Amino acid sequence: MLVIVSSVFYLLTLQTALKSVSPENRKMSPEKVWLTLIPFFGAVWHFLVVLNISDSIKAEAKSRSLQLDESRPGFNIGTP
């Protein structure tokens, strides 16, 4: 039960991160993070979600003329 609750909060955080990026800079729609809950498929999908969120944040920072310390923001912390 605790695993499910923590997974839901984690996915809500990912969805919120994508929603905070302007639509033209998003590499995927925020609702697609929930596909991570599908058994077996979700294990692979998680890596694609992390890649897309990282690229979305990078594109958003570039459009706002912000400097980033990382080439892929959030990528290292989002992958095991």
Mind sketching the topology for me?
Elements: H1 2-19, H2 41-63, H3 75-78
- Overall shape: it is elongated
Measured between the Cα atoms of the first and last residue, the distance is 22 Å
Structural class: mainly alpha
Q: H/E order of the elements?
A: HHH
Strand content: under 5%
Number of helices: 3
Extended strand count: 0
**Assembly form of the protein:** single chain
The domain tally reads: 1
Largest sheet: none
Mean pLDDT: 88
Helical fraction equals: 55-70%
Query: Low-confidence parts, pLDDT < 50 over ≥5 residues?
Result: none
Roughly how many Å is the radius of gyration? Answer: 13 Å
Provide a brief overview of the structure.
The protein is mainly α and 80 residues long. The chain has helices spanning 2-19, 41-63, 75-78.
Could you please describe the fold and organization of this structure?
There is one protein chain. The chain is an all-alpha fold and 80 residues long. The chain has one domain. The chain contains three helices and no strands. It has helices at 2-19, 41-63, 75-78. The radius of gyration is 13 Å and the shape is elongated. The mean pLDDT is 88.
Salient structural properties:
single chain, 80 residues, mainly alpha, 3 helices, 0% strand, elongated
